[in-house]
Amino acid sequence: MGFCKSLTNMDNFYMKKPPPLDLASSNELSLFALGSSREFGERISRYLGIPLSQVEEREFDDGEHKTRPLVSVRGKDVFVVQSQYAEHHQSGNDKLCRLLFFIGALKDAGAARITAVVPYLAYARKDRKTKARDPITTKYVAALFEAVGTDAVMTMDVHNLAAFQNAFRCRTEHLEANKLFAQHFVPLLKDKEVVVVSPDAGGIKRAERFRQILGDALGASVGAAFAEKYRSSGIVSGNMIVGDIKGKDAIILDDLISTGTTIARTAQACCTKGANRVYAAATHGLFMQGANTVLAEPMLDRIIITDTVDPFRLESGAIQEKTTVLSSAELFAEAIRRIHTNESIADLVGQD
């Protein structure tokens, strides 16, 4: 399967697609999208049936910037979309700063409620001290969001859910890509023996949630396994797999792909243990330096990611040929719709 953006139909997993919000009755909802997240925001707006609100993003010669809404937000329920991955012209720090300043401007302009919709949240991986005098950056980022008046932060598949929820005093809404992945894999894995593999012990809970959802979708038992992993000073080691892999199709599930070494190491271990085919599913495809080479190796059959991060770093060739991008915009849009109308979003993330 070639590199593509798959507009996944979620009807089987979430709900029947509702009619667009009636513009005449949705005057209290305003939707903004900043910078390179505007395309993602446009997809959300099309699902909701409302236009993106206009915003001015101005750059100054000295590197400073100004962002302001060009429509009134007084008394409105405001959602601001911005994914905080680094790209050529803006770092994650730049995007975080711009979003915070814009939220402050919205608060000063009288917005009733502001939800930051951040598909990929910067610094979510630095959620604890691993060395003496380490920063706990997730906690500091949470404090910044709260300082400018953010009422809620919505994101998808953070590295450590408990750390994310405990860092924020404002409301958090955490979405998961599990059902998107499950729907993608059902036609590929029907009538096959399948095992879900966590690439490390820390990801076992995430893999277990996906295993249960996939098993329900397939109507069959799905196995579980996890890989040995040690990391020190950026060096990853460990090659043991715990679980029955032989003769099965293995899905390595993780929250993100950065350099690709964790996925590649686990895929090689699965092949060594006799896996039939090996897939990787990760919500955020960062594909940092070296990933194009590491992940192009034949031990990995396919890579499935979502569009929370634009995969602009993927090079043409083998890595693109084996990569599929699933759309998460409808999931975010449905969550926004339900939050605005005070409906539950529990079933969107597989909760009871």
- Note the main sheet: 8 strands, mixed
Which word captures the global form?
globular
Distance between the termini: 34 Å
Which percent band covers the strand fraction?
15-25%
Tally the beta strands: 17
Low-confidence stretches: 7-15
Would you tell me the structural class of the helices and strands?
Answer: alpha/beta
Oligomerization status of the protein chains: single chain
Spatial arrangement of strands, main beta sheet: 1-17-16-15-14-9-10-13
N-to-C order of helices and strands: EEHEEEHEHEHEHEHEEEEEHEHEHEH
Radius of gyration: 20 Å
Mean pLDDT, rounded to whole units?
90
Number of H/I helices: 10
- Proportion of helical residues: 25-40%
Give a written overview of the molecule:
There is one protein chain. The chain is of the alpha/beta class and 352 residues long. The chain is 30% helix and 24% strand. The chain has ten helices and 17 strands. The chain has helices at residues 38-48, 92-108, 137-147, 161-167, 178-189, 204-218, 261-272, 291-294, 318-321, 329-340, and strands at residues 4-6, 29-33, 55-59, 65-69, 77-81, 113-118, 152-156, 171-175, 194-198, 223-227, 230-232, 235-237, 241-242, 249-257, 277-285, 302-306, 323-326. The strands form four sheets. Strands 1-17-16-15-14-9-10-13 form an eight-stranded mixed beta sheet, with helices on both faces. A five-stranded parallel beta sheet has the order 2-5-6-7-8, with helices on both faces. It has a two-stranded antiparallel ribbon with strand order 3-4. α1 crosses α10, α3 (137-147) packs across α4 (161-167) and α5 (178-189) crosses α6. It is globular. The protein starts with a strand and ends in a 12-residue tail after the last helix.
